Amino acid sequence: MNASQETTALLQSAREVLDENWKDGFTVPAQNQYPYQWSWDSAFIAAGYARYDRERAQRELRSLFSAQWADGRVPHIVFHNATPDASYFPGPEFWQTERNPFAPLSPRTSGIVQPPNHATAVLHIVRCAGEEGEKAALAFAGEMFPKLRAWHDWLYRERDPRGEGVVYIIHPWESGQDNSPLWDPVLARMDVPPAHFSGFRRRDTRAVAPEERPLDSDYDRYIFLVDFFRQRGYDERKIFGDGCPFLVQDVLFNTLLCRAEQDMAELARLLGENPAPFEARARRTADAVNRKLWDGDRGYYADYDLASEKPIPMPALAGFSPLFARIPGEERAETMLRRLLTPSFGLGAEQKGYPASSYDREAPEYSPRRYWRGPTWIQMNWLLMHGLRAYGRNDQAERLRRTIAELPAKGGFREYFNPETGEGHGAHRFSWTAALLIDVLHEQL
Question: Which is catalytic among the residues 41, 178, 220, 263?
């Protein structure tokens, strides 16, 4: 089989994964592990659909935003057709979002959010439409524009009470990097009594090996936080004012918000709207990320813990994500690249394995198999690939593109991969792995 035939076969396999996970309006990340619709997953998945099925890409995002709360927030899970005995915990019965008057009664949702990469997905759909589909794609963008604006307005209004220009997250799940060592210092401060929730039983280790998932002690804290929020009716002012133990200004979340505001400005220009407010907010967020989150001693951006008023200097790959929104200047970008080229993240041409590991391979917390504590993730490589291209680092971007193509072929369409061996781990038949593979392979067609 020649290279062209291999590409065609891989594309077909990726489409089959998405077809399997398509639920007549939305795509589940993985049937056995994640049987509902996840927010930032859907944006990445729509980016893949945009390459060959624009109508499905649009339905994906319409389905997600059908569950947007009346106050503008976009929930991190939408429980379409949920049943009490479903195999996912915590389900809607635990979240109890009906305690908040802005939450939709149907479909039911979680009460927290995920990174705001949706405007970026909408612009991607428009750019992939071509001349033939441009009119319909712009009509879709016009439909989504006020919903996206309300979503971003909610984030700046409710999650930046000090007016700093960067927003905070209130749960590790909101970062998308659920089990990253980034959260260890914050979670360690939380005093959660053993067996705090009677009847609480994890279900995430049924389909995935326990050694690849978060520890029970971490999961206890995740659920403790959800209970903290629901007892306050998911009222952001009460959550902040009552001393929420997890308040973090996260680099990746703010990077994707900054990029989304940049993309909102571009959508505004295409739709005949005023781009200036979105450009101004993007600049303000970029300035705040540069001012508050840059760690010059370590050569990357670091999260900030608002509860303890100090940085979280953990060496996660997310600290390099501001490249995706062109936040750092050239000098800082060069500093970041030098760090990425070391064995810590494995991007150098002489480095072995599969870049880029989600956590420093030389740090004591590193694990090549455990969820977010070292494995290579396709979507992180995709973000970093685009960021490096923006700075003209095309050789390193190409290595990431090749890795995105090679890992599913070697390890299957898995949730994440061992950066040393390429072995697949986590959920099987994972949707954004398939979708972003489709996106990068179509670049070469």
Answer: 178
CA distance 361 to 250: 21
Helix %, strand %, coil % for the chain, to 5?
A: 50, 5, 40
Amino acid (one-letter) located at 42: S
Q: How wide is the angle at C-alpha 219 spanned by C-alphas 216 and 224, nearest 5°? A: 130
Structure confidence at residue 191 as a pLDDT band (50, 70, 90): confident
Scan for tokens 């970093």, then name that residue: 384
Distance CA 96, CA 210 (A): 28
What is d(CA 97, CA 152) in angstroms, rounded to the nearest whole number? Answer: 21
Determine the Cα–Cα distance for residues 101 and 356; give it in Å rounded to an integer. 43
User: Is 415 tagged catalytic?
Assistant: yes
Interval 330-352 mean pLDDT: 96
- Helix segments in 159-244, DSSP class H: 172-175, 184-188, 216-231, 236-241
Q: Which distant-in-sequence residues (6+ apart) come within 8 Å of 387 by Cβ?
A: 320, 321, 322, 323, 324, 325, 326
Q: Which one of 41, 158, 415, 439 is the catalytic residue?
A: 415
Cα 296 to Cα 299, 331, 356, 391, 427: the distances in Å are: 5, 11, 21, 19, 36
Q: Tell me, what's the pLDDT at 412?
A: 97
Distances (CA, A) of 399 to 217, 346, 406: 37, 11, 10
* Reduced 3-state DSSP string for 316-358: EHHHHHHHHHCCCCHHHHHHHHHHHCCCCCCCCCCCCCCCCEC
Instruction: State yes or no: is 303 an active-site residue.
Output: no
Tens of pLDDT, residue by residue over 264-318, are: 999 999 999 999 999 999 999 999 999 999 999 999 999 999 999 999 999 999 9
Say which residues have a Cβ less than 8 Å from residue 434's Cβ, sequence separation at least 6: 13, 14, 15, 17, 18, 48, 408, 413
**DSSP-based three-state secondary structure for 296:** coil
Has residue 195 got a pLDDT over 60?
Answer: no
What confidence tens digit (pLDDT) does each residue in 88-113 have?
889 999 999 999 999 999 999 999 99
pLDDT at 409: 96
